[in-house]
Sequence to fold (252 residues):
Amino acid sequence: MRLADITWPKAEQYFKEKDTVMIPIGSIECHGRHMPVGTDMLIPDKIAELVEEKSDILIVPTIPFGACQSLAPFPGTIHIDSEVLYLYVRQIVDSLYRHGARKIIFLNGHGGNVSTLERIGLEYEEKGVMTVLLNWWLMAWDMNPEWKGGHGGGEETAAIMGIDPSLVDYSEIGGPLKMKDVNENIVATGWRSVKFKGVQVDILRSTRSITDNGWIGTDHPNTATEEWGKEMIKTTADYIVDFIEELKKVEL
Ligand SMILES: [Zn+2]
Fold:
């Protein structure tokens, strides 16, 4: 059941009987040259759609925007500062809390949101709220280690193909991942990480300084298939439905 689709008396009735809500949240940001900038919001929104078919949980409209400072230079990316995101999401949580929500499930599609959601969750724990943070792309690794992937790589590309294959620009899935090393001895290994003399340290630089096309991951996007994406999204949604049922048994 989507909050946006029901009347306030129906919402009042819901909170008389139940105390659990789900808030999908994502990001609008570069995901390589081949994927839509809405990737991180489209995937949680699709998972929420499947959860809705099998669960009676109240689902808040998907928050499209997130914190993505390092990707901000890529055209189309909309970055929300963590301070603003914190205040914005906290107000949403606060409204739901006033109406009676005590178990809040964030269905998150974007790593840059995690620290903000953790901050809100810990604050509301003091008010008697249990906050669940479901980072779908990490859950998928446990469900099937072969699904493990990075930003804009095979995992996310498969998920988008599973939602709508026409959203992927296949002509842009190119050659090997090339990250820009700092020099011949300080070698780029990930988002921020570099290796020097076998030890990994972080150099804080924007993604555009690390890669030209904007995908970072060990999993190549050309490994993605529509079947993989469909199965991964369905498996994740089914897991969440089971998790919600188990959460109903938890007494606060
Ligand atoms: Zn992503």
Notes: Strands lie at 20-25, 58-59, 103-108, 130-135, 187-188, 193-196, 199-202.
